[in-house]
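Lab notebook, bench 4. We co-purified these components, and the gel suggests they stay together. Before we commit to crystallization screens, I want a quick structural picture of the whole thing.
Request: model the full complex, all chains together.
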Amino acid sequence: MPRRSCSRWWCLNVTRGAIFMAGRLIQLLRVVRPAENGEAVVRGRKIYILPTRYGAMFGVLLITLLIASINYANNPAFILTFLLTGIFVQAIFHTWYNLLDLRLRGRHGEPVFAGETTFFHVRLRDAAGRARHALQLGFAGQESVFADCPAGGGTDVRVPFQTRWRGRLRPGRLTVESRFPLGLLRAWCYLDTDMEAIVWPRPLDGYPHQADPGYAGSSDGDRGMGTDDFVGHRGYRPGDPLGHVHWKALAGEKGLLVKQFGGDRVNRLWLDYDALEEKNTEIRLGMLAGAVQALSTQPVHYGLRLPGRDIAPDRGEAHRQTCLEALALHGETP
Amino acid sequence: MRDMLVLRPLSPALFRAGSLLTALAALPHAWNLPLAVSGGFALFVLLRLLLWPRPESAAPTWLMALLLGVSVMLVIYQADLSEGRQFGVTLLVLMAGMKLLEMRTRRDLYILVFLGYFVLVTLFLFYQTPALTAYVLMVATGFTALLMANNLTGDRLPLKMLGGKSLRMMITSIPVMLLLFILFPRLDGPLWSLSLGSGSGITGMSDNISMGSISNLSQSEEVAFRVRFHGDMPPPAQRYWRGMVLWHTDGKRWTRGESHAPGTAFQAESPAVSYEVTMEATGQHWLFPLDHVLRPGKGMVMNSDGELGTPRPIKRRFTWQGVSAPRIRGTHLSHREWLLGLQLPDNLSSRTRRLAASLRGKGRKDEDVVRAALRYFNQQPFVYTLQPPILEGDPVDQFLFETRKGFCEHYATSFVILMRLADIPARVVVGYQGGQLNPMGGHLVVRQSDAHAWAEVWLADKGWTRIDPTSAVAPERIEHSIVTADYADGAPVTFDLGRASGVMAGFLRNMRWLRDNLQLKWHYWVVGFNSQRQQNLLDSLGMPKLTGYRLGLAASLGALGLAGLIFLLGMWRRRPPADPLRRSYRQFIRKLEKAGLEIPPSIGPEDLGRLASRAFPARAAEVQAIIRQYIGLRYGPNPRREIISAFRSRVRRFHC
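Here is the predicted assembly.
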């Protein structure tokens, strides 16, 4: 049936056209972009403004008042009605003005586990000498926060983003809006930022325990550094912990010596991606993240072995973050 | 993004401010709403403040439903349903009270503020004074500040910021308001018919009198009307403001009688005077033109007696234009008028009849009879008093022969009776006489205390002629106003001779005139601004073609344009002052160029110095000094302001 297929073809084309047009429209959207120094300035042309629900109600009120004034030919009533009309016009201007020339600088978000809320730090600054009131900042579909910016000063705002998946989170456009002063109008602008946050995989249980080969103790004997067994003395080098200084030797005028400890009991563990039986990548990563979380509170050195990347065993907060970040960005195409 | 603020519970400060402002907005309504309605509103406020003084807990839903029922009953039973105004206001005030009772979040406060604005506007349906307008604007500013506070993130009220900002918004709205006020098309009638209810307590002249009725009125200082003359003001003795003509009497009361012939115009026999009267509401049809009126204005009716009126009762301050002449050409006396002009009550005493016969005499002309009657009032011991004794039985007889104390209506009515007894057609005219000049506004103020009654007699060669028997008793009355004061019974009236006693009295008098002038101006430019005055104003502004839909178009386009202008003014930011150092350096370059030096566009200061030194060897030292100082200031550490100004003056002094 050629006719039907023709109409289907037509339909398809119209749909394609609509999608294309929508894409073009989005391109036409006026968006505030940061300058070279990283600070974005909200210019007048970038600000959208429309009445709020209360603005519409106010409009209905004005029309009602106008009809009453006309009907009763009441001039003082006309005065108040027109004055309120003027105030509405003023409100358009003031609402717009509350955003105008606002300066924003987006910073990176805090790393969190998937499912948690990360906060993007945005620095608001005013250089026009006007205090900005009740600015509402938020990402599309996310909770928003309010902030005030003092005249000539700045303020830091933490804008929340509820994360879902691990990876490098680019939150998209930040909407900055203002209903101040009267709440009758909403002025807003979109801010494109290069902000991003690392979202770690949601930690899962189920990483196999010590019996597994991937979770093996060191077999290298007494060499290496540790904190457990006393090995001997050596000369002091700057940076040695004071607790290790051999004070008695110092008192006996034998020079500045430090005690050396061996690390034979230190568990040097490898967390191995390939050793997991689970086949789903995301679950594997989650298990590894869970293991990293669990090990980070224990006195062990752990390393991470991912396809294409090894992280040598170590411990501490920086190491934990390195591992989690590696898990978060696993599979990312550079 | 969802507006998160509106969901927030009200802070105690916002809650209290909202309650206070709503109460302030509704307060003046207490004087014109039924007590039950005002009481209901006050009860709602009290309930809220006593039972739920905290914003987060409000009246429960069942109570709201109950109160809604009670309110509806109140509205139906208390408000006069036939009067749309009262009905709507009652509903509105009760709704505001209920909103106050149930408000919890910032969303509720929006509704409260909108209701508050509405309540404020309805106040103007009852009062239109400048004082109330000022009050309303003040409360409206408060509401605007409240709306602003409702949009702050904090819970406290920074009163200074809110007050300043809302006041500034109000003031900057005035241009748009003025433009719309002047240009918005005014309709001549209402959109749908309305009944404003009968104005209660309106005082003024009524269309029937008995002895003692005007003297009651005369103790009121209230303004009856104000007159602005286009040209010279007639002398006091000619300031008779003609009201109603009374033909018929039963011996005690005088009434207009029935069925009056319509009149079109009277012919002037002396130069005409035109004027503009702004009269207070009377609730009646009558206008009081200067005697004698020539023709009715637009929207007025006149009859052959020279009575002027409007088709509808005057329920609000009203301005009209009049044309009058002191003397008019006599008209023909119809048979009906002749009969009415000689009508007499049945039971006149024989003393009265004898007096009339003696005045008539033998073969006297009518003019002489009138003169004899006036002489009688003048020579017998009659007293002009605001507190005449109460007359019983035959009032004419008692007044003429026993009490002999009376006010203008006593003299006018008994004079007319005497004339009719003497076969001269006569009638009583009531209205006002005199008026005081307001030296501030240049207009005449006629008060209720200027109410007056006089007589008109028919003289064959002159027609109806005004005779004021009061002037025979108290000639001062015609020249001066009465001093309203508490007079003892039968005490003679004192007159306002315009002498100020003491500085304070003079000051008070001036303040009174100022207030009077303000009232007239307020009425002229604000309350009474109608389509006609709008057109006059547009004509005088050179825009006579602006009518009808063009006017509406101009109003909306003008408001938009003005709003745009405000936008542009706001966007226009003063450019930061250019760097003073650079400005001076440019000046230096200009000076060199003027002296004939050709300077390449991109030349550094050092090269410029060398170039200039070579061109003007005589000034080389000075040039080098300037260049050195410029480089030091430009590229050195933060320069001091004094050094820069020293540099600037050095450049200024420099010449090649």
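Confidence is low (pLDDT under 50) at residues 193-202 of chain B. Worth comparing against the SEC data before the next meeting. The longest strand of chain B covers residues 451-459.
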